[in-house]
Design brief:
Order of helices and strands: HHEHHEEEEHEHH
Helix content: 25-40%
Structural class: alpha/beta
Strand order of the largest sheet: 2-3-4-1-5-6
Shape: globular
Radius of gyration: 17 Å
Strand content: 15-25%
Largest sheet: 6 strands, mixed
Number of strands: 6
Length: 191
């Protein structure tokens, strides 16, 4: 849910170091967002969520100019494009386009995230001031690169990195009623 809303927010407002300063630029500046995960079905969950919001929320529908389901692409009324994709196979399926925002869900599940970051993701942000958000739970034993990035973000010495830690229970977007429902399920909660 958060990833979908954040992508829509960034794309609609064209957030970034080269944000438009007048209406003409707001309507004509190319602005592309990529939402990806370790496989397409995980990324598609977010795409399906966007479609549900478009169907059920007139406020969201008003922001969307068109949807291309075959390419998992949403074009907003201001010309911004949000694409969904997979980083399977070290990101070989990621379109070679400049991206202002890249959101990677469950980044720790991507084999060799270091190589994918250096060779696929980071080059897509060059020249447009793009930002990459790696979302997931960093673990030193299974994804040391992601854990290293997390540590750099926490110590604050390098402004290139930012990390936010916290419990799922601190998630402001998770309603209390949903927390209670999940906690009642013994398959997911032990102890």
């Amino acid at each position: 849910e958060f990833i979908t809303r954040y992508a829509l927010y960034c794309a609609f407002h064209k957030i970034g170091p080269f944000s438009p300063t007048n209406m003409e630029d707001f309507l004509t500046q190319e602005y592309k967002v990529l939402i990806a995960s370790y496989n397409y079905p995980i990324a598609k969950e977010s795409f399906d969520r966007m479609l549900a919001h478009q169907r059920n929320r007139p406020e969201v529908a008003a922001l969307i100019k068109s949807v291309n389901q075959a390419d998992s692409r949403v074009t907003l009324a201001n010309g911004s494009i949000i694409d969904w994709g997979s980083l399977d196979g070290q990101g070989r399926l990621v379109e070679a386009a400049r991206r202002r925002v890249i959101l990677i869900d469950e980044a720790g599940h991507i084999p060799d995230i270091s190589s994918t970051f250096d060779n696929i993701l980071f080059p897509r942000t060059m020249g447009v001031g793009g930002r990459i958000h790696l979302l997931g739970t960093p673990k030193a034993h299974s994804d040391p690169y992601l854990f290293e990035i997390f540590q750099k973000g926490r110590d604050g010495k390098d402004p290139f990195y930012y990390a936010q830690s916290g419990s799922v229970f601190e998630n402001e977007f998770w309603p209390k009623s949903e927390q209670e429902r999940v906690l009642r399920n013994p398959r997911y909660v032990k102890g």
